[in-house]
Amino acid sequence: MNARRRVIAIALAAALSGSVAACSSASTPAPSAAPDVGATTTPTTKPAATCSNATASFAPAPNELQVPIAPGSFMDKIRARGRLIAGVSADTLLFGYRNPFSGQLEGFDIDIVRAVAKEIFGDPNKVSFKVVTYAQRIPALNSGAVDIVADVMTINCVRWTQIDFTSEYFRAGQKVLVRSDSKAAGIQDLNGKKMCVAKGSTNFDNLKNFPKVIAVPVDDISDCMVLFQQGAVDSVTGDDTVLAGFLVQDPYAKVVGTALTAEPYGLGIAKPHPEFVQYVNAILERMRADGTWAQMYRTWLHPTGAVRPPPVAVYGRRP
Predict the structure, then answer these.
(1) pLDDT of 48-62, one tens digit each?
(2) Of 99, 188, 204, 208, which residue is the least packed, with the fewest Cβ within 10 Å?
Protein backbone atom coordinates (compact mmCIF):
# COMPACT_ATOMS: atom_id res chain seq x y z
CA MET A 1 0.00 0.00 0.00
CA ASN A 2 1.48 3.40 -0.94
CA ALA A 3 1.96 6.15 1.62
CA ARG A 4 -0.88 8.30 0.28
CA ARG A 5 -3.44 5.51 0.50
CA ARG A 6 -2.19 4.55 3.97
CA VAL A 7 -2.72 8.11 5.26
CA ILE A 8 -6.24 8.18 3.80
CA ALA A 9 -7.08 4.73 5.12
CA ILE A 10 -5.86 5.53 8.63
CA ALA A 11 -8.04 8.65 8.68
CA LEU A 12 -11.03 6.62 7.62
CA ALA A 13 -10.36 3.95 10.21
CA ALA A 14 -10.23 6.59 12.95
CA ALA A 15 -13.55 8.07 11.87
CA LEU A 16 -15.20 4.66 11.73
CA SER A 17 -13.91 3.55 15.12
CA GLY A 18 -16.74 2.38 17.31
CA SER A 19 -19.47 3.35 14.85
CA VAL A 20 -19.42 0.93 11.96
CA ALA A 21 -20.87 -1.84 14.10
CA ALA A 22 -24.43 -0.99 15.05
CA CYS A 23 -27.88 -2.53 15.23
CA SER A 24 -29.16 -4.97 12.65
CA SER A 25 -32.12 -2.94 11.40
CA ALA A 26 -31.69 -0.21 8.80
CA SER A 27 -32.54 3.42 9.55
CA THR A 28 -33.36 2.85 13.21
CA PRO A 29 -31.69 4.42 16.23
CA ALA A 30 -28.42 2.69 17.10
CA PRO A 31 -28.44 0.88 20.46
CA SER A 32 -26.37 2.25 23.29
CA ALA A 33 -24.19 -0.85 23.41
CA ALA A 34 -24.00 -2.32 19.91
CA PRO A 35 -22.38 -5.71 19.43
CA ASP A 36 -19.46 -6.04 17.04
CA VAL A 37 -20.94 -6.70 13.61
CA GLY A 38 -19.93 -9.96 12.03
CA ALA A 39 -18.76 -11.71 15.17
CA THR A 40 -19.17 -14.88 13.15
CA THR A 41 -19.33 -15.45 9.42
CA THR A 42 -21.70 -18.40 9.62
CA PRO A 43 -24.85 -17.55 7.58
CA THR A 44 -28.11 -17.69 9.48
CA THR A 45 -31.61 -18.36 8.25
CA LYS A 46 -34.51 -16.21 9.39
CA PRO A 47 -38.10 -15.77 8.26
CA ALA A 48 -38.86 -13.56 5.28
CA ALA A 49 -37.54 -10.06 5.86
CA THR A 50 -39.61 -7.50 7.68
CA CYS A 51 -38.58 -4.17 9.11
CA SER A 52 -36.85 -6.05 11.90
CA ASN A 53 -34.77 -8.19 9.53
CA ALA A 54 -34.58 -6.23 6.29
CA THR A 55 -31.09 -7.59 5.62
CA ALA A 56 -32.48 -11.07 4.86
CA SER A 57 -31.77 -11.94 1.23
CA PHE A 58 -32.10 -14.91 -1.12
CA ALA A 59 -29.92 -17.87 -0.21
CA PRO A 60 -27.58 -19.06 -2.95
CA ALA A 61 -28.01 -22.61 -4.16
CA PRO A 62 -25.47 -25.16 -2.86
CA ASN A 63 -22.30 -25.07 -4.97
CA GLU A 64 -23.76 -22.11 -6.90
CA LEU A 65 -20.40 -21.12 -8.37
CA GLN A 66 -19.33 -24.66 -9.26
CA VAL A 67 -21.98 -25.25 -11.92
CA PRO A 68 -22.17 -23.62 -15.38
CA ILE A 69 -24.25 -20.47 -15.71
CA ALA A 70 -27.75 -21.53 -16.76
CA PRO A 71 -28.69 -20.67 -20.35
CA GLY A 72 -31.18 -17.82 -20.47
CA SER A 73 -30.36 -16.61 -16.95
CA PHE A 74 -29.53 -12.97 -16.35
CA MET A 75 -25.88 -13.92 -15.84
CA ASP A 76 -25.93 -15.62 -19.25
CA LYS A 77 -27.29 -12.45 -20.84
CA ILE A 78 -24.61 -10.36 -19.16
CA ARG A 79 -21.92 -12.73 -20.40
CA ALA A 80 -23.34 -12.64 -23.93
CA ARG A 81 -23.18 -8.84 -23.86
CA GLY A 82 -19.51 -9.02 -22.97
CA ARG A 83 -19.47 -6.76 -19.93
CA LEU A 84 -21.14 -6.14 -16.59
CA ILE A 85 -22.72 -2.68 -16.21
CA ALA A 86 -22.50 -1.29 -12.68
CA GLY A 87 -23.87 1.87 -11.12
CA VAL A 88 -21.30 3.35 -8.75
CA SER A 89 -20.18 6.55 -7.09
CA ALA A 90 -17.21 8.58 -8.27
CA ASP A 91 -16.89 10.78 -5.19
CA THR A 92 -17.28 8.50 -2.16
CA LEU A 93 -13.68 8.39 -1.05
CA LEU A 94 -12.37 4.85 -0.54
CA PHE A 95 -15.65 3.17 -1.56
CA GLY A 96 -16.18 4.47 -5.08
CA TYR A 97 -14.09 7.42 -6.21
CA ARG A 98 -12.01 8.56 -9.16
CA ASN A 99 -8.31 8.48 -8.41
CA PRO A 100 -7.09 12.00 -9.31
CA PHE A 101 -3.73 10.65 -10.44
CA SER A 102 -4.79 7.70 -12.62
CA GLY A 103 -8.32 8.80 -13.51
CA GLN A 104 -9.53 5.28 -12.64
CA LEU A 105 -12.42 4.42 -10.33
CA GLU A 106 -11.26 2.76 -7.12
CA GLY A 107 -12.53 1.66 -3.74
CA PHE A 108 -14.22 -1.05 -1.74
CA ASP A 109 -17.40 -1.02 -3.84
CA ILE A 110 -15.42 -0.99 -7.08
CA ASP A 111 -13.47 -4.07 -6.00
CA ILE A 112 -16.69 -5.94 -5.22
CA VAL A 113 -18.03 -5.19 -8.70
CA ARG A 114 -14.78 -6.40 -10.23
CA ALA A 115 -15.09 -9.64 -8.23
CA VAL A 116 -18.54 -10.21 -9.78
CA ALA A 117 -17.18 -9.52 -13.27
CA LYS A 118 -14.30 -11.92 -12.67
CA GLU A 119 -16.73 -14.69 -11.71
CA ILE A 120 -18.86 -14.20 -14.81
CA PHE A 121 -16.10 -13.61 -17.36
CA GLY A 122 -12.88 -14.74 -15.72
CA ASP A 123 -11.73 -11.12 -16.12
CA PRO A 124 -12.32 -8.43 -13.44
CA ASN A 125 -11.95 -5.68 -16.04
CA LYS A 126 -14.97 -6.67 -18.11
CA VAL A 127 -17.16 -4.08 -16.45
CA SER A 128 -18.55 -0.71 -17.50
CA PHE A 129 -19.06 1.76 -14.68
CA LYS A 130 -21.89 4.28 -14.76
CA VAL A 131 -21.64 7.05 -12.20
CA VAL A 132 -24.98 7.63 -10.46
CA THR A 133 -26.17 9.92 -7.69
CA TYR A 134 -27.98 8.52 -4.66
CA ALA A 135 -31.35 9.45 -6.16
CA GLN A 136 -30.49 7.79 -9.49
CA ARG A 137 -29.54 4.38 -8.09
CA ILE A 138 -32.96 2.71 -8.00
CA PRO A 139 -34.25 4.27 -11.25
CA ALA A 140 -31.06 3.13 -13.02
CA LEU A 141 -31.71 -0.45 -11.93
CA ASN A 142 -35.40 -0.45 -12.80
CA SER A 143 -34.81 1.09 -16.23
CA GLY A 144 -32.21 -1.55 -17.06
CA ALA A 145 -29.48 1.08 -17.43
CA VAL A 146 -27.30 -0.91 -15.01
CA ASP A 147 -27.16 -4.55 -13.92
CA ILE A 148 -26.08 -3.90 -10.35
CA VAL A 149 -25.56 -0.94 -8.03
CA ALA A 150 -22.60 -0.84 -5.65
CA ASP A 151 -22.82 2.58 -4.05
CA VAL A 152 -22.96 2.53 -0.23
CA MET A 153 -26.70 1.81 -0.47
CA THR A 154 -28.58 1.03 2.72
CA ILE A 155 -30.84 -2.01 2.78
CA ASN A 156 -34.29 -1.21 4.16
CA CYS A 157 -37.87 -2.41 3.84
CA VAL A 158 -39.07 0.46 1.69
CA ARG A 159 -36.34 -0.15 -0.87
CA TRP A 160 -37.14 -3.88 -0.90
CA THR A 161 -40.50 -2.93 -2.43
CA GLN A 162 -38.62 -1.30 -5.31
CA ILE A 163 -35.55 -3.49 -5.90
CA ASP A 164 -33.83 -6.58 -4.51
CA PHE A 165 -30.70 -6.65 -2.38
CA THR A 166 -27.85 -9.04 -1.84
CA SER A 167 -26.83 -9.99 1.66
CA GLU A 168 -25.24 -7.24 3.71
CA TYR A 169 -21.60 -6.65 2.81
CA PHE A 170 -20.75 -3.66 5.03
CA ARG A 171 -22.17 -1.85 8.06
CA ALA A 172 -22.08 1.93 8.56
CA GLY A 173 -24.01 4.51 10.58
CA GLN A 174 -25.30 8.04 10.03
CA LYS A 175 -23.31 10.78 11.72
CA VAL A 176 -22.77 14.54 11.56
CA LEU A 177 -19.78 16.56 10.37
CA VAL A 178 -19.11 20.10 11.65
CA ARG A 179 -16.23 22.56 11.64
CA SER A 180 -13.36 21.76 13.94
CA ASP A 181 -14.07 24.84 16.10
CA SER A 182 -17.77 23.97 16.53
CA LYS A 183 -19.00 23.41 20.08
CA ALA A 184 -21.70 21.01 18.90
CA ALA A 185 -21.38 17.55 20.41
CA GLY A 186 -24.05 16.02 18.19
CA ILE A 187 -27.14 16.69 16.12
CA GLN A 188 -29.04 17.76 19.24
CA ASP A 189 -26.88 20.90 19.33
CA LEU A 190 -27.64 21.91 15.73
CA ASN A 191 -31.25 23.06 16.02
CA GLY A 192 -31.81 26.08 13.79
CA LYS A 193 -28.59 25.34 11.88
CA LYS A 194 -28.30 24.43 8.21
CA MET A 195 -27.38 20.79 7.57
CA CYS A 196 -26.55 19.52 4.09
CA VAL A 197 -27.83 16.07 3.09
CA ALA A 198 -28.12 14.09 -0.14
CA LYS A 199 -31.52 13.64 -1.77
CA GLY A 200 -32.62 10.05 -2.19
CA SER A 201 -30.63 8.89 0.82
CA THR A 202 -31.79 7.31 4.05
CA ASN A 203 -29.87 10.14 5.73
CA PHE A 204 -32.38 12.61 4.25
CA ASP A 205 -35.32 10.49 5.42
CA ASN A 206 -33.86 10.27 8.92
CA LEU A 207 -33.66 14.06 9.27
CA LYS A 208 -37.45 14.06 9.61
CA ASN A 209 -36.79 12.91 13.17
CA PHE A 210 -34.98 16.21 13.82
CA PRO A 211 -37.45 18.85 12.57
CA LYS A 212 -35.61 21.78 14.18
CA VAL A 213 -32.55 21.15 12.03
CA ILE A 214 -32.72 23.04 8.71
CA ALA A 215 -32.17 20.44 5.99
CA VAL A 216 -30.41 21.60 2.83
CA PRO A 217 -30.89 18.78 0.29
CA VAL A 218 -28.55 18.42 -2.70
CA ASP A 219 -28.40 16.03 -5.63
CA ASP A 220 -24.98 14.61 -4.78
CA ILE A 221 -23.29 14.20 -1.41
CA SER A 222 -20.09 15.77 -2.79
CA ASP A 223 -22.06 19.01 -3.24
CA CYS A 224 -22.36 19.09 0.55
CA MET A 225 -18.62 19.38 0.94
CA VAL A 226 -18.57 22.36 -1.42
CA LEU A 227 -21.36 24.13 0.48
CA PHE A 228 -19.71 23.30 3.79
CA GLN A 229 -16.36 24.76 2.74
CA GLN A 230 -18.08 27.83 1.32
CA GLY A 231 -19.79 28.40 4.66
CA ALA A 232 -23.27 28.03 3.12
CA VAL A 233 -24.16 25.26 5.58
CA ASP A 234 -23.13 24.65 9.17
CA SER A 235 -22.89 20.87 8.99
CA VAL A 236 -23.22 17.77 6.81
CA THR A 237 -24.93 14.51 7.64
CA GLY A 238 -24.22 11.20 5.95
CA ASP A 239 -22.90 7.72 6.56
CA ASP A 240 -19.75 7.69 8.65
CA THR A 241 -17.95 5.99 5.75
CA VAL A 242 -18.68 9.01 3.55
CA LEU A 243 -17.93 11.61 6.22
CA ALA A 244 -14.61 9.94 6.96
CA GLY A 245 -13.63 10.57 3.35
CA PHE A 246 -14.58 14.23 3.82
CA LEU A 247 -12.28 14.43 6.83
CA VAL A 248 -9.37 13.47 4.61
CA GLN A 249 -10.23 16.36 2.31
CA ASP A 250 -10.82 19.00 5.00
CA PRO A 251 -8.53 19.16 8.04
CA TYR A 252 -10.78 21.83 9.57
CA ALA A 253 -13.72 19.46 9.98
CA LYS A 254 -14.65 16.85 12.57
CA VAL A 255 -17.34 14.19 13.06
CA VAL A 256 -19.34 14.46 16.29
CA GLY A 257 -21.85 12.42 18.23
CA THR A 258 -22.81 8.77 18.20
CA ALA A 259 -24.29 7.04 15.18
CA LEU A 260 -27.91 8.11 14.64
CA THR A 261 -28.78 4.94 12.74
CA ALA A 262 -27.44 1.67 11.47
CA GLU A 263 -26.85 1.59 7.72
CA PRO A 264 -26.32 -1.95 6.37
CA TYR A 265 -25.04 -1.84 2.80
CA GLY A 266 -26.23 -4.22 0.11
CA LEU A 267 -25.73 -4.49 -3.63
CA GLY A 268 -28.88 -3.50 -5.50
CA ILE A 269 -30.32 -5.64 -8.31
CA ALA A 270 -33.61 -5.22 -10.21
CA LYS A 271 -36.52 -7.40 -9.11
CA PRO A 272 -36.83 -9.46 -12.32
CA HIS A 273 -33.44 -11.07 -11.62
CA PRO A 274 -33.51 -12.97 -8.30
CA GLU A 275 -31.14 -15.58 -9.77
CA PHE A 276 -28.52 -12.83 -10.08
CA VAL A 277 -29.02 -11.92 -6.41
CA GLN A 278 -28.40 -15.54 -5.45
CA TYR A 279 -25.36 -15.70 -7.71
CA VAL A 280 -23.82 -12.54 -6.21
CA ASN A 281 -24.64 -13.80 -2.71
CA ALA A 282 -22.58 -16.89 -3.47
CA ILE A 283 -19.69 -14.65 -4.51
CA LEU A 284 -19.99 -12.64 -1.29
CA GLU A 285 -20.05 -15.89 0.72
CA ARG A 286 -16.78 -16.94 -0.83
CA MET A 287 -15.25 -13.51 -0.29
CA ARG A 288 -16.10 -13.71 3.41
CA ALA A 289 -14.73 -17.23 3.73
CA ASP A 290 -11.50 -17.05 1.71
CA GLY A 291 -10.19 -13.77 3.14
CA THR A 292 -10.95 -11.59 0.10
CA TRP A 293 -13.32 -9.36 2.10
CA ALA A 294 -10.74 -8.98 4.86
CA GLN A 295 -8.05 -8.08 2.34
CA MET A 296 -10.30 -5.44 0.76
CA TYR A 297 -11.02 -4.01 4.21
CA ARG A 298 -7.32 -3.92 4.96
CA THR A 299 -6.54 -2.27 1.62
CA TRP A 300 -9.16 0.46 1.75
CA LEU A 301 -10.23 0.96 5.35
CA HIS A 302 -7.96 -0.33 8.07
CA PRO A 303 -4.31 -0.97 7.19
CA THR A 304 -3.13 -1.46 10.76
CA GLY A 305 -4.39 -3.61 13.60
CA ALA A 306 -7.14 -6.18 13.53
CA VAL A 307 -9.54 -6.39 10.60
CA ARG A 308 -13.22 -6.23 11.54
CA PRO A 309 -15.11 -9.42 10.57
CA PRO A 310 -17.58 -9.02 7.70
CA PRO A 311 -21.31 -8.76 8.47
CA VAL A 312 -23.07 -12.08 8.79
CA ALA A 313 -25.14 -13.14 5.78
CA VAL A 314 -28.83 -13.49 6.64
CA TYR A 315 -31.14 -15.50 4.39
CA GLY A 316 -34.77 -16.62 4.43
CA ARG A 317 -36.35 -14.33 1.85
CA ARG A 318 -37.93 -16.18 -1.08
CA PRO A 319 -37.53 -14.95 -4.69
Answers:
(1) 444 568 999 999 999
(2) 208
